[in-house]
């Protein structure tokens, strides 16, 4: 696969992870924009970029869909079985989820025991509801959040890997149903209707965003056409601005219509980013499909990509504990005005999240290699 496209996937993954981390951290470190005393152009730019948290989710879902799509399309070419394709991608989610739950539980228990008085774990219900029960932990380990159990601990973002997991499983079942004879098409239609009626609408919106990423691969592999990058980039930029505007006007509508407007804005951002990915997708003549799938997934499994993904999914427990420690031990007040000092503190906290993710993914990789080696020896 072309170096340009692989670099695009990795850089985009990092951008989504950093923006999501900054989005949540800003609520703890800085006052809301309406309370800012001096609204300079730099402040406005900072609050705009750090306000793109959910839009970064849409970017990440497109990226994950592209990787899943490469595996699925490779299955169609006969280079990989459908079950192996689904299992391969589901396993990559669990490689992050299991250490993430362990680390999150450790950090949250530490924070709840030593730094509960900071207010970080009690005064920000819009960010976190500290659910540390064993049933929630077990349910999250089986990707049952938020359908049956709440997200575990302070990490309210755990619904995202669950949405990705069940989108993948349902797509695998859908493909499998189409292979049934007779009546495969009817089984697929019945499954589609059941999902639409049973699953909550936020899941349907995010599953559709993920499927747009899958669609990028199938469109690129079946069509020679590519949209021009000079068209795709402005479309994506416009979708970001429009999504923010739609979010700011959502309060004018009664619920659930207001929230649905917000979700549609995120879907629009996903389509805008999918257009960029489609424009950059390498031509068929450059390399074979099996090679494209192999290189893209090997890139996604690299330490850098895994660190970015861990930062994206599991930054919540890290920032909650670090901010709580700073509040109680160093007297750093929550929700301060933007100053050079608070910007510096903010940057250090983002850096600490990345360093933590890098350490955890490295330890997890070493542990996985040791376990694999032991199995090979015993086998």
UniProtKB/TrEMBL annotation:
The keyword Transmembrane helix applies. The chain crosses the membrane at residues 6-25, 46-72, 92-115, 127-148, 160-179, 191-219, 225-245, 257-281, 312-331, 343-365. It comes from the Bacteria. The keyword Transmembrane helix applies. Keywords: Membrane, Transmembrane, Transmembrane helix. This is Acyltransferase 3 domain-containing protein.
């Amino acid at each position: 696969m072309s170096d340009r496209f692989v670099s695009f996937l990795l850089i985009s993954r990092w951008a989504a992870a950093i923006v999501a981390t900054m989005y949540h951290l800003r609520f703890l470190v800085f006052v809301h924009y309406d309370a800012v005393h001096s609204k300079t152009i730099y402040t406005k730019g900072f609050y705009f970029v750090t306000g793109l948290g959910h839009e970064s989710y849409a970017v990440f879902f497109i990226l994950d869909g592209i990787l899943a799509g490469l595996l699925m399309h490779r299955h169609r070419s006969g280079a990989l079985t459908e079950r192996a394709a689904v299992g391969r991608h589901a396993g990559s989610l669990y490689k992050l989820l299991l250490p993430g739950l362990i680390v999150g539980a450790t950090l949250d228990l530490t924070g709840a025991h030593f730094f509960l008085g900071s207010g970080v774990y009690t005064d920000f219900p819009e960010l976190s509801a500290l659910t540390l029960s064993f049933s929630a932990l077990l349910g999250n380990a089986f990707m049952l959040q938020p359908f049956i159990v709440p997200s575990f601990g302070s990490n309210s973002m755990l619904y995202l890997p669950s949405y990705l997991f069940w989108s993948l499983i349902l797509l695998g079942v859908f493909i499998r149903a189409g292979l049934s004879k007779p009546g495969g098409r009817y089984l697929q239609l019945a499954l589609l209707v059941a999902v639409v009626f049973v699953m909550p609408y936020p899941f349907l919106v995010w599953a559709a965003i993920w499927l747009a990423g899958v669609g990028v691969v199938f469109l690129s592999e079946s069509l020679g056409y590519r949209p021009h990058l000079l068209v795709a980039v402005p479309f994506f930029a416009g979708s970001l601005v429009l999504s923010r505007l739609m979010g700011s006007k959502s309060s004018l509508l009664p619920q659930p219509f207001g929230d649905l407007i917000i979700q549609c804005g995120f879907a629009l951002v996903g389509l805008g980013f999918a257009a960029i990915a489609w424009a950059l997708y390498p031509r068929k003549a450059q390399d074979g499909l099996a090679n494209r799938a192999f290189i893209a997934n090997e890139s996604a499994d690299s330490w850098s990509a895994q660190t970015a993904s861990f930062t994206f999914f599991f930054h919540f427990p890290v920032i909650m504990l670090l901010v709580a420690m700073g509040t109680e031990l160093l007297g750093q007040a929550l929700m301060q005005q933007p100053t050079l000092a608070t910007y510096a503190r903010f940057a250090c906290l983002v850096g600490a999240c990345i360093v933590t993710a890098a350490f955890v993914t490295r330890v997890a990789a070493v542990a996985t290699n040791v376990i694999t080696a032991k199995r090979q020896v015993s086998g």
